[in-house]
Amino acid sequence: MNGGLEVADIFRRHGDAYRRARAGHLGRVERRVMSAIELCRTAELGGHAEMCSSCGLVRCAYNSCRNRHCPKCQGRARAEWLAARQAELLPVPYFHVVFTLPAPAAEIAFQNKGVVYAALFKAAAETLRTIAADPRHLGAEIGVVAVLHTWGQTLHHHPHVHCVVPGGGPAPDGARWVGCRPGFFLPVRVLSRLFRRLFLDELRAAFEAGALGFHGDLAGLAAPAAFAGRLRELRRVEWVVYAKPPFGGPEQVLAYLGRYTHRVAIANSRLVGVTDDTVAFRWKDYRHHGKSKLMTLGADEFIRRFLLHTLPDGFHRIRHFGFLANRHRAEKLALCRKLLAAASPATATADDAMTPHPFDRCPCCGGAMLVLATVPRPILRRSSPWRDTS
Fold first, then answer.
1. Rounded-to-integer distance, Cα 8 and Cα 286, Å
2. How far apart are CA 80 and CA 164, in angstroms?
3. Up-side HSE of residue 120: CA atoms within 13 Å toward CB?
4. What sign results for the dihedral spanned by CA atoms 263, 269, 275, 278?
5. Rounded distance, CA 174 to CA 45, Å?
6. CA distances (Å), origin 218, targets 118, 196, 234, 263, 328
7. Which CATH number fits domain 88-265+308-346: 3.40.50, 3.40.1310, 3.90.930, 2.20.25?
8. Fewer CB within a 10 Å sphere, N or C end of the chain?
9. From residue 244, how far is each of 38, 88, 95, 142, 202 by CA, in Å?
């Protein structure tokens, strides 16, 4: 156990030194994320006084920062999102497909997060929809929920998109439901090659439009000839598209989405210890069958790796495509249910999807905490300058 150790503790202990050491290089988004996590659930954000309805314990409960990069602030956002998704589930198998950028593309993505991550989403979704629409494979319009992750277990930059896809969709004429073969969705090799082509087309178009910037070790790629050489290099390597077996049912789909949609680079539960110089955390080595191992990093290196995964302001890391796209979701889902002769699922609420949060329960007896009074912020601040969206 980590004894309650949090990323916030590491930032509070080592954050000032990290800021000073990188005074000219730390971006606004990274500074805001650090500040939000440091202040989360402290008196600086205000809160309320509350009392346990069972044992009478009185305590102050301070407000959360609600920053999407904060490990403590994802519970309510996840519950609200899952409640909406439960109403969209169909009684069909669901598949999980992962699209990963190779390292030579990932380093371009790091210096151009908004542009390249958007291209990753677009290429992955278009790949799935194009191959699924081909009658040689499925011949149907499909729906896609896509979630961006940018980290691996050791916090290195590793951009990839997780896609959860119903195993079928309406035929082109909308007259029947076309389901995939049992236990099989779409051919991975075909997906991989189309994904590579579509992504590189997007990358080339962004370069020609002047939307990409390069600095440091990649500065040479600003030259058209060098960039063209990088594209040729990327065309020669195999791109990883991984399709997992179908989920067991709608409950498993929701459980999976709950784990992945609002995840941050590292959960507090993985932290083991922090010293004046180092941070230790657990990680799974998937090259050795997911064996759990311990990694110790310098505190500045841990913070650096954590901040690799901050997203640009306003960038949506959860997106919907096909018949699940926002603009026509209700209409398309109604058609799907009609073709499947399926009733609409019961409407869920965020409270249904919430697991009890330790801040909502008495630490002595587990009783419900009742609000007594508001605790104002000690200093007037602009309201939640670090809040952002998924």
1. 28
2. 18
3. 34
4. negative
5. 52
6. 20, 21, 15, 30, 41
7. 3.40.1310
8. N
9. 37, 21, 7, 17, 26
Phi, psi of 361 (to 5 degrees): -125, 150
CA distance 106 to 310: 15
How far is Cα 248 from Cα 288, in angstroms, rounded to an integer? 26
Reading the block at residue 272, the tokens are 């083991």
pTM summary value? 0.88
Cα–Cα–Cα angle for 370, 70, 7, rounded to 5 degrees: 100
- Classified as helix, coil or strand, 26 is coil
Kindly list the domain boundaries of the chain, sorted by start residue: 7-69+360-375, 88-265+308-346
Q: Tokens 């398309």 appear where?
A: 332
Residue 40, number of CB atoms within 10 A of its CB: 24
Record the tokens describing residue 31, joined without a space. 């500074």
Q: Dihedral of the CA atoms 306, 309, 313, 315 (nearest 10)?
A: -150
Per-residue pLDDT of the chain (390 residues; tens, 9 = 90+): 456 899 999 999 999 999 999 988 899 999 999 999 999 998 888 888 888 988 988 888 888 898 999 998 877 778 888 888 888 899 999 999 999 999 999 999 999 999 999 999 999 999 999 999 999 999 999 999 999 999 999 999 999 999 999 999 999 999 999 999 888 999 999 999 999 999 999 999 999 999 999 999 999 999 999 999 999 999 999 999 999 888 877 778 878 877 778 889 999 999 999 999 999 999 999 888 889 999 999 999 999 999 999 999 999 999 999 999 999 999 999 999 999 998 776 555 545 444 444 557 888 888 888 888 888 887 655 444 445 544
Six-digit token string for 337: 């249910």
8 A C-beta contact, residue 278 and residue 297? yes
